[in-house]
């Protein structure tokens, strides 16, 4: 006999399945069957565990379970786990209702009524069994063959603006999974082959992004006293409404870090565009107008830093050359090979297979992304005081950069938005791995 239901915990904390109850609900008829019977119309109604079934009380069965589900674990409910309700000969009742009662880490209990035989997807908020709960949970019902699934989600949202706050100071940045965006500044109204983002830098940071990929071109190719740096994407401007500049982006970053000093943001800077300025010219402008006036706002060291060192700061990822006579700044990312599926260079290990020549190559991109996630997950990172000496630690390994983006200007099917639609659906089964961007 097939399992009745699979309960899965997709919250970040342990959930205890306290009890299971089965009964025929007199308020639900077969013609109005749903994934979540509507006997309790108000999801916030506080009611006793055993419903008032009247003449149908003989159908009620209960079993205490006390099974703890760690995050992402599941529990399979077999038919013999709890007896079927006694049949009622002359009944217009729907199929059996299953009531699940759970308890979270704060010993707060919640319950949900579900119909495991229903054939459509559905969702419902768990009913709290105590007033003013500090948490809330949502049940998602999936009628997956051969066994239906009931997924438990936390209904409250974490504060993505401060997600680094709880991380230990001793973590090297290479040991942290850091979400980033490609061509982060291309959120303005522009050609679809140029536009890679839909929200501005401030919104990206508030939603947890901590790696920004910025491409610039000096407004003046000869005069370093002019600080203006155009934002570009390859040879193209990033807005149809006029030139956009680097300064507002950095202002948004500075403001964000002032409000959230526990965070750090990696900023990759690269010279692109059709202007005649050189990397040396860009380096001089950045040094004179950005780094030297605000040393407290930037980490420009050449080695992967520990989180404690860079909280409240921007970390320079340098994708432009600096003449040997000038001060060397930032994590050197100048020489990794173009269109690389796997390249180790200096402080970085990179996957940036970006030339997706036709839509049929998108699965290749997903394969390279997944392979790089596996490589990153296999790395052992040295944490001072944990698995290396606290005073003289083994140096950090490389930072794994995993670009999920790609495009081909000459094929509509491979413009950034088209590729993102495939990638964002999830082309791999594993989640983000440690130490990847």
Would you count the extended β strands for me? 21
Number of domains: 2
The name of the CATH architecture of the largest domain is Alpha-Beta Barrel
- Count of separate DSSP helical elements: 6
CATH superfamily of the largest domain: Phosphatidylinositol (PI) phosphodiesterase
In terms of structural class, how would the helical and strand content be classed?
alpha/beta
Domain Phosphatidylinositol-specific phospholipase C X: 169-319
Protein name: Phosphatidylinositol-specific phospholipase C X domain-containing protein
InterPro entries: PI-PLC_domain (IPR051057), PLC-like_Pdiesterase_TIM-brl (IPR017946), PLipase_C_PInositol-sp_X_dom (IPR000909)
GO molecular function: phosphoric diester hydrolase activity
């Amino acid at each position: 006999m097939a399992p009745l239901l699979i309960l899965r915990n997709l919250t970040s904390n342990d959930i205890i399945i306290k009890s299971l109850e089965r009964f025929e609900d007199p308020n639900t008829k077969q013609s109005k069957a749903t994934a979540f019977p509507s006997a309790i119309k108000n999801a916030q109604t506080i009611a006793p565990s055993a419903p008032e079934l009247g003449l149908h009380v003989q159908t009620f069965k209960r079993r205490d379970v006390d099974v703890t589900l760690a995050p992402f674990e599941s529990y399979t409910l077999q038919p013999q786990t709890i007896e079927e309700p006694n049949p009622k000969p002359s009944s217009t009742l729907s199929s059996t209702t299953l009531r699940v009662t759970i308890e979270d880490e704060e010993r707060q209990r919640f319950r949900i009524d579900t119909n495991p035989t229903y054939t459509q997807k559905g969702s419902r908020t768990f009913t709290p069994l105590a007033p003013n709960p500090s948490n809330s949970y949502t049940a998602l019902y999936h009628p997956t063959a051969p066994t239906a699934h009931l997924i438990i989600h936390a209904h409250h949202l974490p504060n993505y603006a401060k997600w680094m706050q709880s991380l230990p100071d001793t973590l090297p940045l290479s040991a942290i999974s850091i979400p980033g965006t490609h061509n982060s500044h291309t959120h303005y109204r522009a050609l679809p082959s140029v536009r890679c983002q839909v929200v501005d830098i401030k919104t990206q940071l508030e939603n947890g992004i901590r790696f920004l990929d910025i491409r610039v071109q000096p407004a003046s190719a000869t005069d370093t006293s002019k600080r203006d740096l155009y934002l570009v994407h390859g040879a193209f401007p990033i807005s149809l409404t006029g030139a956009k500049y680097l300064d507002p982006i950095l202002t948004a970053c500075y403001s964000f870090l002032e409000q959230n000093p526990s965070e750090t943001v990696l900023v990759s800077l690269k010279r692109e565009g059709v202007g005649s300025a050189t990397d040396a010219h860009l380096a001089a402008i950045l040094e004179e107008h950005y780094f030297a006036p605000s040393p407290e706002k930037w980490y420009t060291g050449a080695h992967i830093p520990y989180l404690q060192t860079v909280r409240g700061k921007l970390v320079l990822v340098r994708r432009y050359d600096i003449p040997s006579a000038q001060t060397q700044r930032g994590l050197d990312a100048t020489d990794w090979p173009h269109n690389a599926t796997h390249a180790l260079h200096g402080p970085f290990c990179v996957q940036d297979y970006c030339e997706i020549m036709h839509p049929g190559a998108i699965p290749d991109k997903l394969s390279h992304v997944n392979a790089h996630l596996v490589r990153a997950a296999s790395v052992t990172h040295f944490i001072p005081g944990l698995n290396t000496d606290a005073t003289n630690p083994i140096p950090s390994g490389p930072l794994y950069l995993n670009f999920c983006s790609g495009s081909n200007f000459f094929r509509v099917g491979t413009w950034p938005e088209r590729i993102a639609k495939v990638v964002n659906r999830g082309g791999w089964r594993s989640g983000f791995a440690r130490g990847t961007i």
